[in-house]
Amino acid sequence: MNYDIDEKETSLDNMGDSLLEAMRLCVEDSRPTDAKSILNEWVVDGRDPMDGEYEFIFLPNNTLIN
Fold it and tell me: Exposed (0-12), middle (13-18) or buried (19+): which is 39, by Cβ within 10 Å?
């Protein structure tokens, strides 16, 4: 499956939104360590990938191949 720019951007937006929601729920549930762990999955080496140039690797979806 070839990803175009819109599909990649949508995937990244969905991932960011999902992680943000998971962090919010952890904070509401008084689990700050879990929230920080989720944050560390997104922000690597102090760099938020949405703040600048950052390269994500998209692998082909082999589940659709016969």
Answer: middle
DSSP string, 4-56: -HHHHHHHHHHHHHHHHHHHHHHHHTT-HHHHHHHHHHHSBTTB-GGGS----
Rounded to whole angstroms, how far apart are CA atoms 8 and 25?
26
End-to-end, the C-alpha distance of the chain in Å comes to 13
Instruction: Kindly give, in sequence order, each residue whose CB lies less than 8 Å from that of residue 61, ignoring residues fewer than 6 positions away.
Output: 1
- 3-59 tens-digit pLDDT: 556 788 888 889 989 999 999 999 999 999 999 999 998 888 888 887 877 888 888
